[in-house]
Every structure is written in structure tokens, then in C-alpha cells.
Design brief:
This protein is an alpha/beta fold. About 45% of the residues lie in helices and about 15% in strands. It has a six-stranded parallel beta sheet, sandwiched between helices. It is elongated. It starts with a helix and ends in an 8-residue tail after the last strand.
Length: about 325
């Protein structure tokens, strides 16, 4: 039989091992402490603009990304190259709707073409918020809310701004030229309707001609060059005013009007554009453009993402938010 004294070193060693085996280092304990208060899970949202190339949409993206950072959102920003690519946008919407995102923010290229796809997604339980341009559907049923400029009112603002620039004694019979955007774009259609209605109520002014464009700056320039050319007589542009209803149409029209001036054509017509960009601000500074009616796309992007987060987290959202417009002139705008 072994002596008890001979066993003591073995027992002591086992006791030490047991003591250290049951103790955990601070590093080992950290995961348990972290697990007690887990970080809130990120919300996944996709945003689909009408286009991705214009500075207008880059401003909207900046607003959306600011909201995403603030509200713990993983944001996927994906859209067609330009506003005329309706089929591309439908494909992007359906792919993202099936990707597992928790919500979609959409600016529809065509208010009717996108509507059935949005309704299908909504019926499957995917919340969709609309921004910038309306959808042919019912707020609260087909989509959760709408964040945008009041485009009819903004169009009326453009008309009253142009009328104020022309004055009470219009030249060239008060004829006004309107360069329109694509036919399927509801936001610009409402804007153009607001402009036409307000101009019709202004004594002495009338729309002499108007035409849709293909959604690009180059396409708008071609249309504007043709229409403007119809009113050049004896090296004078016989129009009282010109209105272009969004960024690409205003940029294309600016190029066309500036080209006439550069050729020595006398241009007295007042020119009001819509939205702004580096090129359009240059137009204000060099006097080719007299005023710009400017939206707030950064605010639209921010509020669109915020409304989806609120809805997903069970908070009420406003059915409609008007983000407003401002009127920029050379006098109140610094060069970019």
C-alpha cells in the first residue's frame, strides 16, 4: 500500500490544474459578455432611382446613404443608366425584391409600368416606399408612402417666375417654348401640366410649341435645336420665353440656346430651367439661363430611407411629404 504522504504532490498538482482549468481569461470571457447585449441587426434596404448618371440622382444617393449610416441600414443603390430605361428598372426591381431585402425605395421611370410589380411585392409582404416620382397606385395599400416635390405647384412656380422675367409687355407675341421630358415620367408630366396651367392664366403669354425628348441631355439638345430653329428670323430668336422641365432637358436646351448666341443670333427670350447641376449653374452665371427651379433630391433620399426604417420598426409614417423647391438666379447663387 502506498504512503499517503507520497500522494500529496500528485493531489496538489491536480488541484492546481482544476483551479486554472475552471478559471477563464478576460479574453475568453469577452464573448459571453458581448452576447449578453448583442448589437442591433442591420436593416437591409434597396433603393432604385430612375437613373444613376445625373448629378440629381447622385445627390439623392448621398441623402439615402446619410440616412443608412444614421439608422443602421445596409443599403443597396441600383438603377438604370437613364430615365428612359423602363424595362431595365423593372428587372432591377424584381431582382432586388427577390433578394431578401427588408424594404425597397423606388423612383419609378414609368408610373404605370412599375405599378403591377410594386403591387406584387407589397402583397408578398415587402414594404415599398416611393420617392421623387409618383406611382399609379394607392398610398397605404400599394406602397407605404410618397416623398417628393409637389410637381404641379413647382411647375406653376416655374411659370410665374418666367412671367415675372418677361414682364407685362411680352415681346414676340408672348410665345413660349417648352422642352418636355419623356412621356412615361409622371413627375415631369405633372410639372409640365402645372407650368401650362399657370402660364395659360397669365395674360399675353402662350405656349407656341412643346415636344417630348428621349430622356438624355443629347436628345434634349437635338429637340431644342430643331424647335428653336423654327423661330429664328432675320438672325433673331422670336420667342418671349423658354422652359425646360428637368436637369437633362435644361442642360440640352442650355447647350442649344448658347450655340445660337455663339453664332451671333440675337436672343432676348427669358429661359427658366428645372433642377441644377454644374453646367446649369454656369448657365446662370453667364446669363444664358435666367432662373432655375430647384428641388431637394438629397432630402428625398434621406426621408425615403427613414420612412422605410420607421415602417419596418413599427412606427407610423406620413403618407406624403413635400420636400419643396427654391428659385435660383445669378443674384442669389454662387458659381460651382
Amino acid at each position: 500500500m502506498k504512503s499517503p504522504l507520497k500522494s500529496l504532490p500528485i493531489l496538489s498538482a491536480l488541484a492546481v490544474l482544476a483551479l486554472f482549468g475552471c478559471s477563464k481569461s478576460p479574453e475568453a470571457a469577452a464573448p459571453a459578455a458581448a452576447g449578453a447585449n448583442p448589437a442591433p441587426a442591420k436593416i437591409s434596404i434597396a433603393a432604385i432611382p430612375k437613373a444613376t448618371t445625373h448629378s440629381y440622382w447622385k445627390a439623392a444617393e448621398a441623402g439615402a446613404r446619410r440616412a443608412a449610416a444614421e439608422f443602421n441600414v445596409t443599403l443597396e443603390w441600383q438603377g438604370p443608366l437613364d430615365d428612359s430605361k423602363v424595362a431595365d428598372q423593372i428587372g432591377i426591381f424584381n431582382n432586388l425584391a427577390a433578394s431578401g431585402v427588408q424594404g425597397i425605395l423606388l423612383s419609378p421611370c414609368d408610373d404605370k409600368a412599375l405599378a403591377p410589380h410594386v403591387r406584387t411585392a407589397t402583397k408578398r409582404g415587402l414594404p415599398v416606399a416611393i420617392f421623387d416620382s409618383p406611382l399609379d397606385g394607392k398610398v397605404g395599400t400599394d406602397f407605404i408612402n410618397f416623398t417628393s416635390t409637389d410637381n404641379k405647384a413647382a411647375g406653376a412656380t416655374a411659370a410665374t417666375t418666367l412671367a415675372g422675367l418677361i414682364g407685362t409687355a411680352p415681346i414676340h407675341g408672348g410665345q413660349v417654348l417648352v422642352i418636355r421630358f419623356t412621356e412615361g415620367s409622371a413627375s415631369t408630366r405633372l410639372r409640365e401640366e402645372g407650368f401650362s396651367t399657370a402660364l395659360a392664366a397669365t395674360p399675353g403669354l402662350t405656349i407656341a410649341a412643346q415636344q417630348f425628348t428621349d430622356g438624355s441631355m443629347a436628345g434634349a439638345q437635338r429637340v431644342a435645336e430643331t424647335l428653336l430653329g423654327n423661330y429664328v428670323k432675320n438672325n433673331k430668336l422670336e420667342l418671349a420665353g423658354v422652359f425646360a422641365s428637368n436637369q437633362p432637358t435644361a442642360e440640352g436646351t442650355y447647350n442649344a440656346v448658347k450655340a445660337l448666341r455663339d453664332k451671333g443670333v440675337e436672343v432676348s427670350a427669358k429661359f427658366v430651367g428645372f433642377d441644377d447641376s454644374t453646367l446649369l449653374i454656369q448657365g446662370l452665371q453667364n446669363g444664358v439661363i435666367d432662373a432655375l427651379v430647384v428641388q431637394d433630391p438629397e432630402k428625398m433620399g434621406y426621408l425615403g430611407i427613414k420612412s422605410l426604417v420607421d415602417h419596418i420598426q413599427g412606427r407610423p409614417v406620413e403618407a406624403y411629404t413635400d420636400t419643396g423647391v427654391t428659385v435660383k438666379t445669378k443674384a442669389n447663387t454662387a458659381a460651382k
